[in-house]
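User: What would this chain look like folded?
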Amino acid sequence: MTICRKVEANTRELVLFNDQLEKISSLLLHEFNQGLGKDTHYEASVKMFPTYVRDIPNGSEKGKFLALDLGGTNFRVLLIDLDGDDFHMENEVFEIPEKIMIGTGTQLFDHIAECLSKFLEYQGIKGQKLPLGFTFSFPCKQEGLTSARLVTWTKGFKCSGVEGEDVVQLLREAVNKRGDMEIDVVAIVNDTTGTLMSCAHKNKECRIGLIIGTGTNACYVEKVSNLPVDSVISGTGTNSCYVEKLENVELWDGDYEDPRQVVINTEWGAFGDNCCLDFVRTRYDREVDENSLNPGEHLFEKMISGMYMGELVRRCLVHLTEEGLLFGGKGSQKLYEMYAFSTKYVSMIESDHKHVFDETRKVLREMNLEHATQEDCENLKLVCARFSTRAAFLVSAAVACILNRIKRPHTTVGVDGSVYRYHPHFHDLMEKKISELTAPDHKFDLMLSEDGSGRGAALVAAVAVRTRN
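Assistant: Here's the prediction, encoded as structure tokens.
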């Protein structure tokens, strides 16, 4: 057996077949129902939070809107001038230092308020009070369109004093403390809802918003009831009748007027936290989880997202090196550093054409592994492909679950995130696999969100103002 075949054999457990993916789809559907159920929601891993976003843009929205977009190590402030299908956007990106990511909630929201103040000053609109949409891309339990309590931090954030608190109120307090601006927060959403709204503004068939970046999550438009609110169902055995709400969303505490629908934030990153995915998790998944800031939590996300994919690859490379199957058994100091192998390296390596290793050699130089042979390069590319393909297939199984649930003739899936955007094969892998896992009469297409979730937050604000007016 050649070394290449041994590497292939050592990574074969990462290959997922359709019967496994169909089982994953079925398990996720069960988790969806648990999350939506009033009696089962508290114990559910996949929380299925109603967002209170009821409608998508219809083209009549008009005016200036602000958006704040917080979902990773960068924070964005946007100003959007909207006139139906036409819009003009100004935006600025601000860094969130690591000390703030793991500091106090007060420090975080003071930093956000400071960024907002600088942006308003630069745009010359500090004296105006504009509607604002806030994209906050962490698991939250929404209590209304302008109220959301953080359930748990993810993606490397660990700010104290925020979990269990209303993040809109924390933002308002930070802004009021400065005393140099006014804001009118009309909606809080996460990045999936923002992506859905951004794509729906251009494509009216968009009903799913999907993020595959630092983290992974999805939202979709769910009917709150399968029957009109005043449906009369005849009783059996007597002449009585009763009014029944056949609820898809038992958690729903809003009205049942048109549109009888609501965007559901699945928070599917936590899928598998109840051990139901252990049959496809590997030693590398367990090692990454055990050494993370939140062991035992967000296990599905840790198998997919950009925050962890490079580290999964690195741990596999370390194992293969220690077995003498890579790099002549000789690693580098950098190879043994946690998170030193960036997820962008995976995209770089897989962008090389067959038997060409230009990008691969760049990565190897950065990892101080210049002694790698041609065969090592082939094996390295195989390892990267095993993890990225697994991630694409896992997401595909989850998207297929939603498409099979909502049963629309055609659905556009709005997608954003660095993994989907920059990996050379992710889109094609997903398109093919979703087709295999979805019923033939549920057609779909994948649409890249060009302007990100921040623009979507402004559009949610625009729809909220239209509805309010």
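The two ends are 72 Å apart (CA to CA). If you want, I can go into more detail on any region.
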